[in-house]
Amino acid sequence: MVRILGVNGSLRAGSTADRALQYALGLLRAEGAACETFDIGGLTLLDGRPDDAYPPSVAAWREACRRADGFVIAVPSYHGAMPGGLKNALDFIDAPEAGGKPFAVIAIAGGSAEPGGTDVTRVMRHIGGLAVAPDVVVSRAAEHWGKGPEPADPDVAAAVERSMRALFRFCLLREAGSLPGP
Which residue spans within the chain are E strands per DSSP? Predict the structure, then answer.
């Protein structure tokens, strides 16, 4: 069974990024994927200490990433970049946790969502992740997503659905050994 790890780059439950992530994971569950999320808000700052000197949340984060066959990352943009907490979480993982694994990014923000999505894609590719589809970019989220659990804009819904189908297919290809390793 394909295992997907969902990561909410916004630390606020119920945020637009959280609703977008839950919507995407629902689509993946409908495809047959087992989905879980990890709350990155409990991670300490990366500061270069030995691995065994970090709190257990860091080992749990790395293990959740190792178990995953693929990732969905919902990311807001703050001041033209991904949030610092998400960057910190991604800094804790590398090729053993993410290398050769497909990922999909949903960038979503009240203003321009593109910068945060670009940041996450660049970092994930740097650590060996495989971008499976163009990022889903939802700028002016109040207009295009709205306040509900699903996108208000049918074009946004279609983009998320295409991206999640691609992620699921790529995870199946990885499971079959048909994707390059890290």
Answer: 3-8, 34-38, 70-75, 102-108, 130-131, 136-138
Q: What is the pLDDT of residues 28-48, one digit of tens each?
A: 999 999 999 999 999 999 999
Task: Please name each of the domains of the chain with its CATH number.
Answer: 3-175 (3.40.50.360)
Smallest CA-to-CA distance from 111 within 39, 21, 16 is with: 16
Q: Dihedral sign for Cα 11, 14, 19, 25, please.
A: positive
The pair phi, psi for residue 126, each rounded to 5°, is -65, -35
Residue-wise pLDDT for 61-89, tens only, equals 999 999 999 999 999 999 999 999 999 99
86 backbone dihedrals φ, ψ, rounded to 5°: -70, -45
